[in-house]
Amino acid sequence: MKREYRFRYMVLEGIRDLFYIWKDEMRNVFKDAGVVIFFFLVPLAYPVLYAFIYNNEVVHEARLVVVDPCDSYLSREFTRRVDATADVRVVRVCTDMAEAKRMVDEKRAYGILSFPEDFSRSLHTGRQATVSLYCDMSSLLFYKAFLLSATEVSLEMGKELRARTSPSSTEEMERIAVDPIPYESVNLFNTQNGFASFLVPAILMLVLQQTLILGIGMLGGTVREKNRFHGLVPINARFKGTLRIVFGKSLAYIVLYAFVSIWVLAIVPRLFSLPQIGDPRVIALFLLPYLFACIFLSMTLSGFMRSRESPMLVFVFTSVILLFMSGVSWPEAAVPPFWKAMSYLFPSTPGIQGFIRINTCGATLNEVSTPYRVLWIQAGVYFIATCLIYRYQIIRGRRLLIKRHRELKRRRMSRLKTKSNDVIHRI
């Protein structure tokens, strides 16, 4: 056969084997109930569950108890204004701290606002008065609601007291004296200053990575359990090339997760009115290396899975750790250098950072060039690692198969020799 025809035959054979492996992997996915749960039910339900839990965004009417031994007009006015804010509701005014602590212990309130006995006298004599705020730190959202409300009321009443104690000749001079440097707070990209708007997009990206790791790891463990030699590559003439195996399997996963990603990253945020100002084309281009990096990482890790249950035992607990190391729920600048370096072993870190900048802040691909490059580098590194693992599995399978054939041949020859000796002995 001529060289060009032989090359063409090899290419066509490789393409046929690639699509055979793709169909075989798709069949394996839909035949395995556990993989269907990880690939479809978890991405379908988890994003909705998380978005639904945090859909209120902020805490309203957080229960606060007040300890007011002063019982003056100024302390009562301070309490009335705090109660009038949207985030806080004063449930009781007590005379001693013991009763207030008891209410917090019983979860009838989540914070205590305490006035000193000389609160009104200190303000009228021109001295500074301190109002103490105690908060149940089991939830930071309560602390945020109490602190912001009390701070706003103290600043507003402070301006009024300053205006009364230091009158000016004109309203303009009085306004300048009371508020010499006016400020305005603008919440960029999260106008409600809500919890879901900054946390849920990170969880959505992490769900894609973790479900791929668990699903592909379960597929790898299943193949090892069913394989006669407990290898990752089935004993099949079609599974004889490293690239066709890797490309065939990854093609199956990328096709499935193209549809899963649309639901997770586009439809769920729209259902719950989360911020979405990014260009869909930019998001799609950014998502491509992220999915490839997650798929090849999952295929690499699946090479070490010995059973179906192994991925759930090894990888499920890492979700919270990876969320913290991504620099979203915990500031990236506060992450120690070791853990920051460790976080870039996983596609979730650059994926979450880049996706939030694009989807929530409207960044372009040039503005997220660093995480975009990191994702392509990760995809390349894990692709090479996947090829090495599957190449090793192919060679190992061939050696074990040859060894098995030799063993069978030796046993056959041994039986033939025994029969011939029996015949000679009879003769």
Automatic annotation (TrEMBL):
Keywords: Cell membrane, Membrane, Transmembrane, Transmembrane helix. The lineage of its organism: Bacteria, Pseudomonadati, Bacteroidota, Bacteroidia, Bacteroidales. One of its GO terms (cellular component) is plasma membrane. The keyword Cell membrane applies. GO terms for molecular function: ABC-type transporter activity. Residues 35-387 form the ABC-2 type transporter transmembrane domain. Pfam families: ABC2_membrane_3. It comes from the Bacteria. The keyword Cell membrane applies. PANTHER family: ABC TRANSPORTER PERMEASE, MEMBRANE COMPONENT OF ABC TRANSPORTER YHHJ-RELATED. The chain crosses the membrane at residues 33-53, 195-219, 250-272, 284-305, 312-330, 375-394. This is ABC transporter permease. It is found in: Cell membrane. It is a multi-pass membrane protein.
